């Protein structure tokens, strides 16, 4: 076993959907994370999708797995005196308490920040909820989609003709957990230096509101709301070589007018090599292709009328480019395009990610035990630390460590 | 003024655009001294893009210092101009890194090689350095020099395929989504873990955060469904495998919402109790007992009808009223808010004081995202405006790096500090 960054840190977790990924990040980095679960387990234990053939098995929810690797599980019933008393004893053995219960729930059971911190001043107590610990919505019911809506990111996603789009993957919960991990570690470092613990308060709404990109500043400076614009994003009008292109077997996304890569002429060079430049070497297209770059785009964003004469010619350029991408596979478009320093992203399906040449070449996927037997392949950690690598081990079975942990409290 | 938890920590921020600078911004908000290394020969692209601050006459301000996009992610940092394409610039970089605890970059390995900023080079200068590299694809491998930013990662990591409505092409999510929380947040998490290790052992280390690995890790169950079950799932709009109804429903327009008059409420009913409460709160308790909708399985089987029905209930009502009625009944619900709502109309955001305002010497008074987590004893805050390009070149050279005024004058004359 390598050295672990969070070696010797004990976390007692009263978390289900919103803070579990925070606990997972700490656990994979080496903290001992003991998850206190209600009898039968929480919502995530019952969440689809399950391992095929094991629907409903609390140890077979893939949604539970991805947020709960490397932890231990203790079942305690906080609705009983005995459960509360054991939970309290256990919490006082912790360096960190991590929770995502409704505001006040743990305090009503003798497990609130004030009580525990009074008894153990070095304790870091992290609360992760939809709207934080105070304010008029502190007690509002929360689920991931509510965080994505109230935090402002849904309003930016989707086609104007459709409802605003949810981003896949519990992104409000994930964002809240990632913010909580940072706050928790800062508070831990401070507690280790000074002996002083504190409360870390995370609101899922606030946690992802920075992901509004420029919408907040656009309102602040210009009193204009950014709205959902389909694939245009920040672009004021559709432009060639931006947006989704259909290939023979899938899609790529093009961002060739964005900064950091090569501009349109490099794409036309590639098209010419395949004899597919169409009319783009002829006027007026040739001049326009040379003109469409970031500087022009910035000018356009200040003054959309600046596009002027060019606008009427753009559809031909776009059509020629889309015809070019339609002749190749998505992977060829992505890999060869990137080799030419063109900003192109392949639209990966989950299978494509599992087979991604870069991830495979770097041995990113890991093999872990399955909580229901055998082993499975699993995504690796988000970062690689040379001296203290994150190590992913399997999620716990419901109550797997109850006897062991409770025996240690006696 | 309470102490900030990262006081005394010094960060050499060699990053640009979103994911890197935001990691530095978080460290800055919590007390670290963050030195942003820039060059006028290749300024951060965000300095040159909208939204720009405006003049009183309604025209846009111009120059490198008035982009709200850049300014929001670089609060309280120091800015030094340094040309890393010349050997003397690289020498100054080493002398800066020697005085820092953390090194941060999100350039591709190709550029890192060119600037001689590889880990073995900078750790030779400062063995205690915690060096965080966050390139798109990692430091090695066949795609290591692939270019991009958040909007390219969105398709590459599966977000585009998995988000949005299935009858639409995979258009993405409208923003450079992973740049803002997932990648900078994972980066800071790793830096803080490495700091703890250094506190205990004195040893620095290399942190590699390939943005593709960071994002796929945070992307729900999709890849695990393939690895474990062999399924290759796709997007399902706003629906959920675990709740029904689950989606956004159009309410009455709000003419006061500038340029964004359509208003939507989201509703998530995770069990029959929440569904019954929602139906009652919306004035249609009978719908809960309707056999088409009485159980979760029935609601999933009749979801088109269910959504049309709820849509008809709320279409002429004010979104805020619908959300409040549902919340009063304990049902997760909320308005799909825009920036105007978040900055000005959301009483909860205002009560918690999330946004913080600072005066910027060129842009004027600006709103900033405040800290996204609150520490009761050692709170963070927006420490000050973003630096003007090169604003602190002299200060960093003299006070931090320890160069003499003569040395600085020579470097300026030789075009190194540009």
From TrEMBL, chain A:
Key word Signal present? no
Q: Does the keyword Transferase apply?
A: yes
Which InterPro entries does the protein's record reference? Answer: CoA-transferase_III_domain, CoA-Trfase_fam_III, CoA-Trfase_III_dom3_sf, CoA-Trfase_III_dom_1_sf
Lineage, top-rank taxon, reads Bacteria
| GO MF terms, alphabetically ordered | transferase activity
Provide this UniProt record's keywords sorted from A to Z: Transferase
PANTHER family recorded for this chain?
SUCCINATE--HYDROXYMETHYLGLUTARATE COA-TRANSFERASE (PTHR48207:SF3)
The entry's protein name is CoA transferase
UniProtKB/TrEMBL annotation, chain B:
What's the protein here called? CoA transferase
Q: Which GO terms describe its molecular function?
A: transferase activity
Tell me the SUPFAM superfamilies matching this sequence: CoA-transferase family III (CaiB/BaiF) (SSF89796)
Question: Which superkingdom does the taxonomy of this entry point to?
Answer: Bacteria
Q: Give the species.
A: Tepidiforma bonchosmolovskayae
Q: Name one Pfam family in it.
A: CoA_transf_3
Q: Could you list this entry's UniProt keywords, alphabetically sorted.
A: Transferase
* Xref: InterPro entries: CoA-transferase_III_domain, CoA-Trfase_fam_III, CoA-Trfase_III_dom3_sf, CoA-Trfase_III_dom_1_sf
């Amino acid at each position: 076993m390598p050295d672990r960054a969070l070696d010797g840190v004990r976390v007692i977790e009263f978390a289900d959907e919103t803070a579990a990924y925070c606990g997972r990040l700490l656990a994979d980095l080496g903290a001992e994370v003991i998850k206190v679960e209600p009898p039968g387990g929480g919502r995530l234990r019952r969440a689809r999708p399950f391992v095929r053939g094991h629907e409903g098995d609390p140890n077979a929810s893939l949604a539970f797995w991805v947020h709960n690797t490397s932890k231990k599980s203790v079942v305690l019933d906080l609705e009983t005196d005995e459960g509360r008393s054991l939970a309290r004893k256990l919490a006082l053995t912790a360096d960190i308490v991590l929770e995502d219960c409704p505001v006040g729930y743990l305090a009503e059971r003798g497990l609130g920040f004030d009580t525990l911190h009074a008894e153990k001043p070095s304790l870091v107590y992290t609360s992760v909820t939809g709207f934080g610990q105070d304010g008029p919505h502190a007690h509002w019911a929360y689920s991931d989609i509510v965080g994505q809506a109230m935090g402002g990111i849904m309003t930016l996603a989707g086609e104007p003709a459709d409802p605003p789009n949810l981003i896949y993957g519990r992104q409000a919960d994930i964002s809240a957990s990632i913010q909580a991990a940072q706050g928790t570690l800062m508070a831990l470092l401070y507690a280790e230096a000074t002996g002083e613990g504190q409360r870390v308060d995370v609101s899922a709404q606030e946690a992802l509101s920075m992901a509004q990109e420029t919408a907040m500043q656009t309102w602040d400076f210009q009193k204009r709301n950014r709205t959902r614009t389909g694939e245009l994003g920040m672009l004021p009008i559709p432009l060639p070589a931006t947006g989704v292109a259909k290939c023979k077997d899938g899609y790529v996304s093009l961002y060739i007018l964005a900064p950091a890569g090569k501009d349109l002429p490099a794409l036309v060079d590639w098209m010419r090599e395949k004899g597919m430049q169409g009319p783009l070497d002829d006027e007026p297209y040739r001049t326009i292709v040379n003109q469409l770059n970031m500087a022009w785009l910035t000018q356009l964003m200040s003054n959309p009328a600046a596009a002027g004469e060019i606008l009427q010619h753009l559809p031909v350029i776009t059509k020629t480019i889309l015809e070019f991408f339609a002749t190749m596979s998505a992977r060829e478009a992505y890999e060869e395009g990137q080799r030419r320093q063109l900003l192109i992203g392949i639209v990966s399906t989950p299978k494509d990610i599992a087979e991604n040449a870069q991830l495979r070449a770097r041995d990113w996927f890991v093999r872990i035990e399955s909580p229901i037997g055998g082993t499975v392949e699993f995504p690796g950690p988000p970062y690689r630390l040379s001296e203290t690598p994150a190590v992913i081990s399997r999620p716990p079975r419901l109550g797997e460590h109850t006897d062991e942990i409770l025996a240690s409290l006696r | 003024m309470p102490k900030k938890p990262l006081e005394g920590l010094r960060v050499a921020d060699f990053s640009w655009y979103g994911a890197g600078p935001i990691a530095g911004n978080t460290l800055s908000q919590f007390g670290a001294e963050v030195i942003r290394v820039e060059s006028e020969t290749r300024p951060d692209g965000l300095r040159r893009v909208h939204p720009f601050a405006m003049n009183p006459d309604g025209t846009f301000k111009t120059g490198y210092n008035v982009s709200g996009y850049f300014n929001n992610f670089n609060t309280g940092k120091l800015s030094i101009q340094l040309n890393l394409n010349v050997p003397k610039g690289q020498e100054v970089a080493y002398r800066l890194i020697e005085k820092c605890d953390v090194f941060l970059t999100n350039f591709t390995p190709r550029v890192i090689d060119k600037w001689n900023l590889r880990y073995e080079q900078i750790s030779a200068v400062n063995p205690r350095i915690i060096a965080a590299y966050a390139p798109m694809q990692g430091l090695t491998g066949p795609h290591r020099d692939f270019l991009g930013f958040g909007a390219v990662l969105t398709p590459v990591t599966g977000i585009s395929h998995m988000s949005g409505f299935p009858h639409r092409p995979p258009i993405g999510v409208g923003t450079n989504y992973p740049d803002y929380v997932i990648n900078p947040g994972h980066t800071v998490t790793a830096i803080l873990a490495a700091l703890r290790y250094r506190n205990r052992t004195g040893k620095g280390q290399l942190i590699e955060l390939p943005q593709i690995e960071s994002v796929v890790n945070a992307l729900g169950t999709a890849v695990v469904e393939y690895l474990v079950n062999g399924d290759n799932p796709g997007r399902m709009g706003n629906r959920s495998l675990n709740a029904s109804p689950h989606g956004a429903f159009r309410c009455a327009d709000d003419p006061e919402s500038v340029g964004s008059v359509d208003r939507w409420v989201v509703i998530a009913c995770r069990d029959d109790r929440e569904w019954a409460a929602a139906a009652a709160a919306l004035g249609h308790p009978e719908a809960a007992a309707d056999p088409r909708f009485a159980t979760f399985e029935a609601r999933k089987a009749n979801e088109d009808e269910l959504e049309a029905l709820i849509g008809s209930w709320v279409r002429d009502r004010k979104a805020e009223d619908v959300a409040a009625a549902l919340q009063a009944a304990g049902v997760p619900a909320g308005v799909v808010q825009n920036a105007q709502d978040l900055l000005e109309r959301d009483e909860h955001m205002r009560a918690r004081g999330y946004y913080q305002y600072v005066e910027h010497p060129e842009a004027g008074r600006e709103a900033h995202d405040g800290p996204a987590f609150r520490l009761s004893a050692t709170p963070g805050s927006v420490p000050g405006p973003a630096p003007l390009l090169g604003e602190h070149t002299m200060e960093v050279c003299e006070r931090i790096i320890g160069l003499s005024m003569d040395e600085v004058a020579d470097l300026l004359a030789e075009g190194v500090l540009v």
